Amino acid sequence: MKHFLVLFALSYLGASLCVWWLSGFVPWFLLPDFPFLMIVFSGLFVPGAAGFLCALPPAIFREITTSAPSWSMFLGSMALYFGSREIGRRFLLRNEPSLLSAVVSLMAAESFSVVLLLSLSGARPFSYLWGAQEAVRIAWTSLVAVPLFLDLSVRWRRVKE
């Protein structure tokens, strides 16, 4: 229950901070995607059905706060959870470089899938400027993720002991 409440609070706080408070002052690509980070954290570090339940509210927040077709961000977020869960099962992610590479690869895969779906639907969503902005967003969110994930995982290991 603690996992659920902490991840729910962090994803809501991050989504509300980025979408409603800072979106008029800071460019969108400089705002970290906190619901994304909470979905990845629940996949990497929260075992079993509790991880799935922890990933549901951030996926709903992403669906509500983005202007994407219906259910696309929610289903993409659930796919992201299952992908991060498989990465968490197969690799030991206790140090910074491995955690950073896992988050960067998950964000890049998500960005590539969005571009692929948009191009298959007939839209032309990408340009050099968009690619540069997306690279900055991936780098910034990944750099925010490493200390956040390490701090949360250490705190939860201490609580278990």
Global Rg: 15 Å
- Quaternary: single chain
Mean pLDDT across the residues is 81
Shape: globular
Q: Report the total helices.
A: 6
Beta-strand segment tally: 0
**SS content category:** mainly alpha
Please give the largest β-sheet: none
The percentage of residues in β strands lies in under 5%
Q: What pattern of helices and strands is seen along the backbone?
A: HHHHHH
Total number of distinct structural domains? 1
Poorly predicted residue ranges: none
Helix content: over 70%
- The termini sit apart by 17 Å
SSE layout and pairings?
Layout: H1 2-21, H2 34-45, H3 48-65, H4 72-90, H5 96-120, H6 128-160
Identify the notable features of this structure and list them briefly.
161 residues; mainly alpha; 0% strand
Could you please describe the fold and organization of this structure?
The protein is 79% helix and 0% strand. The chain has one domain. By secondary structure, it is mainly α.
